[in-house]
Amino acid sequence: MKLSYDLRNNIAYIRFRKKAAEVETIRISDELNIDVAPDGTIYGIELLNANEQLRREDMGKLLVVDEATGEPVEVPLNAA
Is pLDDT of 77 > 70? Predict the structure, then answer.
């Protein structure tokens, strides 16, 4: 899995697997798109207006938790 953030365009993308030949983008809302591979698996999630969506209550930090070990890692997000 890979999380990327485009500061200039304020878009975050969570990619779950390697690029599929074709993906279908499903628009969930004005700020959320989901890319689905031809086999029906989710390829990735696109967050538009990402700084607003990712900064709500976490003071600009992304918390990643390994559910197997419970080990948390905080990653600061750059200000827009």
Answer: no
